[in-house]
UniProtKB/TrEMBL annotation:
Protein's UniProt name: YceG-like family protein
Organism for this UniProt entry: Cohnella phaseoli
Keyword Transmembrane (UniProt): yes
Keyword Transmembrane: yes
Domain of life: Bacteria
Parts of the chain that traverse the membrane: 7-28
Keywords, sorted A to Z: Membrane, Transmembrane, Transmembrane helix
Biased composition (Low complexity): 75-87, 104-116
Polar residues composition-biased segments: 117-132
Length: 196
């Protein structure tokens, strides 16, 4: 009996641990059973939607909003045009608000974004040096920076920009770069590596 004492102890402990684990598994399965829950009422659902910051719409309201959006998208090109309901089109009022997020995405000040009423041949705007800004995010490549600068009108050729600024590709810092007028490649490189 003394020879097999450690074997018997291990066997007994194994049985006890196995039985405990089996009981835990059975207990956990009972806990996972779905609880019978009554569905939410319309008022409760609306309250929960408000708490989450959502808007609860009936199918009719949803269809009306979709039709409004379609009409706005179709009529947004013509200002002062009357919609199908005979009322003035709201697209001209909502259009300036839609332009503001675009300006913030390109990080250009709103004064730089030409409006529909301005003429590009205006000599006063050509004599003033335009200031453009661009947010350089982490992991942005020279190609992406060059494309954004080309969209903003700071450079003409992306390939030439990449060739000229390749030495600072690994040294670019995250942050907003501000360029005035038509900067040289050296000015752009200095701005890309400047501590922001």
């Amino acid at each position: 009996m003394r020879k097999h004492r450690s074997w018997l102890m291990g066997f007994g402990i194994g049985l006890i641990v196995g039985a405990i684990m089996l009981q835990m598994i059975l207990f956990a399965e009972k806990q996972d059973a779905p609880l019978a829950k009554e569905p939410l009422k319309a008022e409760e659902l609306a309250d929960e939607a408000k708490k989450a910051g959502l808007l609860l719409l009936t199918p009719e309201q949803l269809d009306a909003r979709v039709n409004e959006a379609r009409a706005e998208a179709n009529g947004s090109g013509a200002e002062g045009q009357e919609g199908a309901s005979g009322q003035p089109d709201d697209a001209s009022e909502k259009q300036p608000a839609a332009e503001e997020p675009e300006a913030s995405e390109s990080n250009a000040p709103a004064s730089e974004t030409p409006s529909a009423g301005q003429n590009e041949a205006n000599p006063a705007s050509e004599t003033e040096p335009q200031q453009v800004s661009l947010y350089v995010s982490y992991g942005m490549s020279l190609t992406e920076v060059g494309e954004e600068l080309q969209k903003l009108g700071a450079i003409d050729d992306v390939k030439e920009f990449i060739e000229e600024t390749r030495p600072v590709a690994a040294k670019m810092r995250v942050g907003t770069i501000v360029l005035k007028g038509r900067p040289t490649y050296q000015e752009i490189m200095d701005e890309l590596v400047r501590k922001k």
